Amino acid sequence: MILAVLICASVLIGAASLFSGDVDSGLLIAVSRVPRTLAALLAGAGLALAGVVVQMAVQNRLVEPGLVGTPEAAMLGLLAVTLVAPGAALMLKMSVAAGAALLGTLGFLLLARRVPRRDPVLLPLVGLIYGGILGAAALWLAWTTDLLQYLGTWMSGEFSGVLAGRYELLWIVAVLAPLLYIAADRITLLGLGEDAARSLGLNYRQTLLAGLLLVAIITAAVVVTVGAIPFVGLVVPNIISRWRGDNLRRNLGLTAWLGAVSVLACDIIGRVVRWPYEIPAGTIFAVLGAGLFLWLLNAAPRRLGQRQNSNA
Which helix (H) or strand (E) holds 268? Predict the structure, then answer.
């Protein structure tokens, strides 16, 4: 019911009224409103699922693709392919961005191996620094090549430019979600750590690489199409985990649903706050997500301490 209400609101709300008679309502719905709604749903679901995989891979609930440098690495790949082949097809740009995102994520994993795991807050802080370095490199490259406008578009995370024919790349999320469901039990074992996963017969490196490849493809598709949207992969999996535990197969559908609903709701809020102007959905979610992230930073150590005391 919540999803149906939000979909109806997204189709009806906009700068142009569907009932004024000044525009072709059917054309507006088919070309703009429905593609925009579907893009928000697919992007939110994809980022939420990517967040779960990253958290399992590093055994830390306070990280997500946006906190490990994945979007920034994808932007570096996009800048590189734009400079080398400005007229490249969209699929080629996404492929290069996905490859760069995978390399950036693997770089963080190598760095994470040297980070002490006693304090769960330390790893996301290292991820913020790592992502900041990659973002600074992307900003410098865009500034020296006069591509700041392109970089700003990829960083904004907004859906106002989504039209029919310009969002279909996001359907990759719908293709990858069943693959993630098939591998859900293996990815759940990643959260136990390398030694425990290997003792249960899991090919740890192969599963880790496959999961990170899914994360890279989803992140690249979202960045190429609508730009980076922070905190979705952090907030949504933590809400579901605190409610229903860490069984990925059981929680996969609900995680995707909550991610889709959250991003679509933020997009709608961005349309009505300063109507007829818009605030990017990424900005709305960043404000809400940052508040929850700060709460998680303060709450996680206490919860960890409580568990240790109860175990003792």
Answer: helix 248-273
Mean pLDDT rounded to a whole number for the chain:
82
Evaluate if residue 309 carries a pLDDT over 70.
Answer: no
On whether the CB atoms of residues 78 and 147 are closer than 8 A, the answer is no
Residue 46 CA to residue 256 CA, distance in Å, equals 7
What pLDDT is stored for residue 306 in this prediction? 42
* DSSP SS3 for 211: helix
CA distance 131 to 108: 9
d(CA 89, CA 167): 14
Question: Who contacts 197 (Cβ-Cβ below 8 Å, separation ≥6)?
Answer: 189, 190, 204, 207
Residue 65 has pLDDT above 80, yes or no: yes
> Any idea which residue has 């995370």 for tokens?
157
In the predicted model, what is the mean pLDDT of residues 244-268?
Answer: 88
CA distance readout (Å), 74 to 94, 138, 212, 219, 301: 9, 10, 13, 8, 32
Q: What is the mean pLDDT of residues 165-176?
A: 84
